[in-house]
Amino acid sequence: MEFTNSFWISRPSFCVCVFSRVFSKSVLFFFFVVGVVATLQTSSSAAAASSSNNANEIVTENILLGTPRQQWDVNAAGDLSLQGFARTSSYMPTQLAQFAVNADNDKAWTAAVYRLGYYQGHGARLVASIAPTSEQVAASVEQPECKLLEKDTLLYDCANWETTLTWRIPHDATSGVYFVRLERTGAKPANSWRADDVGLDASVTPQFAKHGAPPGADPQPSKMPHAYGALGHGRLRDALEEPRASHVWFVVCESNQNAQSPADILVQTADTTWQAYNRFGGSGLYGGVGVGHGPKAYGGGGLDPKAPGRRSFKVSYNRPLVTRDYRSINMPLGAELPGIMWLERNGYRVSYVASADVDAGGAELLRRHKVFISLGHDEYSSSNQFTALEEARRAGTSLFFWSANEYFWRIRWERDETDASHRVMVCYKETQADAKLDPLENEWTGTFRDARPQNPLGPRPENTLSGTIFTVNAWRNDAMTVPASMAKLRFWHNSGLAERAENANGVARIREGVLGHEWDEDVCNGHRPSCMVHMSRTEADGVMYVQDHGAVYDSGSAVHRMVLFKHPESGALTWGTGTVQWTWALEVLHDGGDTGGVPPERANPFATRVRPDPAGTDRAAQQLSVNVFAMAGVHPATPQADLVPWEASDDHAVPRSRVLNATPTHVDVMAFDEGGGAVAAVEVSVDGGRTWCFAERHGDTGVLWRMRRKDHASLTKWNVEGAVLTRAVDDSLNCEPVEEVRDELRRLKSS
């Protein structure tokens, strides 16, 4: 497929870049497209203006014409004969983005830059076309072999590849998650018969092929009765227009020109997780054996020939990403795409960064924004990132975790052989060993929570940050349930969830799949944040439940709870959804949308594609998201027509609680609110206030709560004969002061 130069059409307030995919087809068609774009701009601008007097760059960006997914998507990891990577995880406007591209043969290729967004529901937009020079194409064919730099860590690195593609990022480029689509040009080879053909023959299992024949043998010679596919039945309706392509991901950060007026929301990609699961070269942090094309198809040079299943201890960002072949949920089109689409559909002023940006920029970067979002499967993080979030929250930045299994593995960064920073991610996963593995004496690259003596840094459980902690491993695809008593709380207002609960025996459901593929719990472990309320409650049996610090799993039962709490000093909110797939309730387009929650690479080994989820969105989840953003002081510029603006609470009265009964098995509490709201949580301390655990509603009165000892297995002390303390939290997050609770206890004892 050929690309021409770009055509720029001046508009009064911004520029629209329109590209003709094949210029020779029709000049008339080009002007028709321009007319359509202009019409969309006019109508969409009017809609934006009617919704907000403060249209922002995200609103302006998403007025532009989107690109159908059949043009921008690829199948799984794409064409393995044409792969590349960006020289850095993120760039700034005006910088020269550099890409190292490797082509296995001398067939021509071209490239196009896309940005993820809403764009009329398409999910991405063509931003620019890049025609590589003949010298760049030639250099891509002659790339050297990647290097196994360290045999003991299996560090496999392709930094020695030559830069064979560049793109000067426009000065007015909108911050976002971008990708280059590398694409073959010219006629398809004669033996290319598969729908979305990208050389998947190597992954086809023998039971799906003729005995004795190559797995990819063309069935066309069998055009006999009942050879249905060969006869033309079942043709893929949404096949890719050019499947011989692959993606190269990078982030464009917010322009320095916005320093005085930064975006309200800062979204961090889960790129460390993309790389942790990346097996290019043969191995990753999960070893080299598993589903996908097979380790050797990814180069094989990073494998230990004596132990092909051995995991890497270090992984390089200087490699193409092939993770989507076998773990698509751990790539940006799994959980990140629908979150990005929904935020931009509603005109939230948002900017984007990679994990390395947060590690390097620290709290100073985060403090410029009202809300920080951890998006997707944000499993791997550094101590700098952890600390940056804590410090930013103390300074007033709200933290939203649209993620689960978040901040689980502690990583550290090293420079690559070119001395570029943040290009080598180190994680020895020491929690999976009985001795320290990381050679740096005062470092730890196991789980943050690991409390064993070999961790020189000591435990730092992730629920101190997000309010929840990972316990339930893959692959879950559950609905989220909300009891009627919770559905009536203020943050669910206008969601319709209370009515839904009334019509469903007192328990409302939020669509199937929103709770998965891994999820967290609220655990009383001595690190639980104070004054935290539950927004949902979902029980599940037969889950893969963590048994130790993060190495061993067994069947178990779990209770998921979405949580919300407020920092006692800064007032910043923390919202922990405790699920990777929260965004599946917000927008329909994502990987796995057509497989009913079964991982797409397992549902159909021939196709992993972005498709609409037939389960649809869930308006209650969308309304809740609008409400919580508003509680954090952030409002949409172009809200969906069916969503209701949030009305701020004027309730500042704290609720009250007192102990009714304390026994060796449970503590009963009465709690009430007189400020116009409702009690949303009750917490109990049985050790004089050192640790606090949650109680749950008990009975039908609405004012009785009970904390049962058996619900808090990690609670080691249960001294109900001493000072049992309680505190209540209402649905405006007003929390009963502990000192007032102590004073009341003293008064009762003296009376």
From TrEMBL:
Domain N,N-dimethylformamidase beta subunit-like C-terminal positions: 110-587
Domain of life, source organism: Eukaryota
Domain Moybdenum cofactor oxidoreductase dimerisation: 664-741
InterPro entries reported for this sequence: DMFA2_C (IPR046540), Ig_E-set (IPR014756), MoCF_OxRdtse_dimer (IPR005066)
GO terms assigned for molecular function: molybdenum ion binding; oxidoreductase activity
Protein name: Uncharacterized protein
